[in-house]
Amino acid sequence: MSHDRQKFEDSSSLQTEEDKDQLADQLSESLTATDGSSADPMAGEPAQETAETALEEERIKDEVEIQIDLLNDPDWAVRREAAITLGEMGDERCVEPLVRALQDGDWQVREVAIEALGMVGSPAVDPLIKLCRSWDHRKSAIRALGKIKDERVLEPLINQLRSDEFGEDATDALVDLGSPAVEKLVAALGDRDDNTRKQAVIALGRIQDLSALDPLIEKLKDKDWYTRLTAAAALEKIGDERGREAIKPLLKDPDLVVKMRVERILAAWKKRTATA
């Protein structure tokens, strides 16, 4: 910068006005170029931030792929840890590999895959519903659906209540879902299938939602003795006084097993009330 300035001053007395203007322009351009390099210290930051974001996304992408690859490791412990990590990541790309892990030869890997799919959530629903069609893997798929808070899981799980082999698994899954499952379970109390009604009663008793109280009281009149019995047990679990009063007529039930069971239920209920 000083060299250009000196050049301008030395030549100003000798040059024409036109030459002076040219030299002035050259000096101005030189000063502008020099000052511009430090005029805006923040100018490069947006580009830097974009690059850092891209690098972070690439790192995460690589990590997901690494863990997916580890699901094929010959060591079951490595596969188990990979399934846990994928669940914690919650990335949609983890779904299909974790669904395949439900078919792993080691039960410990299958267990954590169920939990991991629950952590991933809604993206796993459709593949799990499809897997329910497989006899060999239906149990794990049902259990995994019970970990996902998504209304789409309710109908498939209700449908599984009629199964002799998987009805209890579906009941457990619906109990895991809790209150969101109550409306569908209450509707299932009127199902034509005996097993569906029984399992719905059991699930409602375990969920212990007061909104199921009146429908359960109504099931005390069911034609099936076991449904009447499970309804009485469900009302005991809920613990509302109206349930106890509704159970009392079953002391005269035509089925001896129901009568004996209700006697024990009422005795235990009275004891709890006295010690409360």
Encode the helix/strand succession as letters. HHHHHHHHHHHHHHHH
Radius of gyration: 36 Å
Instruction: State the helix count.
Output: 16
Query: What's the overall geometry?
Result: elongated
Task: Quickly give the CATH architecture of one domain.
Answer: Alpha Horseshoe
Mean pLDDT: 84
> Unreliable segments (pLDDT under 50, ≥5 consecutive)?
11-15, 33-39
Q: What is the share of helical residues?
A: 55-70%
Largest sheet: none
Q: Tell me what portion of residues adopts beta-strand conformation.
A: under 5%
Find the structural class using helix and strand composition: mainly alpha
Can you put this structure into words, describing what you see?
By secondary structure, this protein is mainly α. It has a domain at 59-144: Leucine-rich Repeat Variant (Alpha Horseshoe), CATH 1.25.10.10. The chain contains 16 helices and no strands. The protein has helices at residues 2-11, 17-36, 45-70, 76-89, 95-101, 107-120, 125-131, 138-145, 154-160, 167-177, 182-188, 194-207, 213-218, 225-238, 241-247, 256-275. The termini are far apart.
